[in-house]
Design a protein that fits this description.
This protein is an alpha+beta fold.
Length: 73
């Protein structure tokens, strides 16, 4: 489960620290505020973690470890 995300210098986000709830998180706002960029940043972090997991898995069934409080720039 994604718990938090730290972004710096990504499109419209000079700096953002986000904490997510357990169940459902909704991003709303005017056009151009960065909703899609935020979703792409989350996707990029998860995709990179999944790729690393499948290429470097130590043992079958071991869950992937993600450090999503990361700087994306």
């Amino acid at each position: 489960m994604l718990q938090s995300l730290h972004i710096e210098n990504l499109t419209v986000f000079p700096k953002a620290d986000l904490t997510f709830g357990k169940n459902l998180n909704i991003f709303i706002g005017e056009n151009g505020l960065g909703k899609t960029h935020l979703l792409k940043a989350i996707y990029a972090g998860i995709a990179a973690s999944a790729e690393a997991y499948f290429h470097h898995q130590k043992s079958p069934g071991e869950p992937p470890k993600t450090d999503l409080p990361a700087k994306l720039s």
